[in-house]
Amino acid sequence: MSDMNPLTEKVRVVRWRMSNEKLRFSEELRIIPGWAYGLAILLLVGIEIVVPIMRARHAHPMPLAALIVVMVLVGILFVALGLLIGYVNRDAKRRGMNATLWTIMVILIPNAIGYILYFLVREPLVFNCPQCGGAVSARFNFCPKCKYNLHPACPECKNAVRTEDRYCPNCAHDLSADRPAGERPLTPVTPGAPA
């Protein structure tokens, strides 16, 4: 656990996130704010108005069937972009990141590179400490309020172990003798709910 290599730390956080963040698409859609749905509708209406005007002003307009396909595809793209702006705004807030900065970045950085950057560097969700209930990050090794060990290691070989392991997978040390009674798994903090 004392390895301070940034790549190793990033891999550890990603593995922890994959095992502890059980995100469902339907639950993630619920965090999109109402203003993002309004923005998506405005973008859709704007595209549906602008595309036919551009067709009428063009010397050689495209066929009506092609125009309908273009309007539908571009409309879907703009609706998705509008909803993603709202999602990034709310998701950054619940992860303790600067929501305003990330919202501006995903709007201004072209070709969806801002979205890609956000999803690559976003922080893990904040979780409740199993012992005291305080909010802790996946990057923490110990709870800052009660010093609870959030990333347990085998006392014998010092390799990381899971909370549900009875024996160390590396050296077969009996972990149940070293574990305090009543240990609970980490649970995600829901935004706006009391800790």
Structure description:
With 195 residues, the chain is mainly alpha-helical. It has two domains: 22-123, no CATH class; 125-187, no CATH class. The protein is built from six helices and three strands, in the order H-H-H-H-H-H-E-E-E. The chain has helices spanning 6-20, 25-29, 34-57, 64-94, 99-108, 113-121; strands at 127-128, 135-136, 187-188. Strands 2-1-3 form a three-stranded antiparallel β-sheet, with no helix packed on it. It is elongated, with a radius of gyration of 24 Å. The model has no long low-confidence stretch (mean pLDDT 80).
Oligomer designation: single chain
Number of domains: 2
Report Rg: 24 Å
Going across the biggest sheet, name each strand in turn: 2-1-3
Q: What is the terminal-to-terminal distance?
A: 28 Å
Largest sheet data: 3 strands, antiparallel
Give the overall shape, derived from the CA principal axes: elongated
Number of helices: 6
Question: What is the H-and-E element order?
Answer: HHHHHHEEE
Q: Uncertain segments of ≥5 residues (pLDDT<50)?
A: none
Share of residues in helices: 40-55%
Structural class label: mainly alpha
Strand content: under 5%
Q: Compute the number of strand runs.
A: 3
Q: Report the average pLDDT across residues.
A: 80
Quickly list its features.
single chain, 195 residues, mainly alpha, 2 domains, three-stranded antiparallel sheet, 48% helix
At a glance:
The chain is mainly alpha-helical. It contains six helices and three strands.
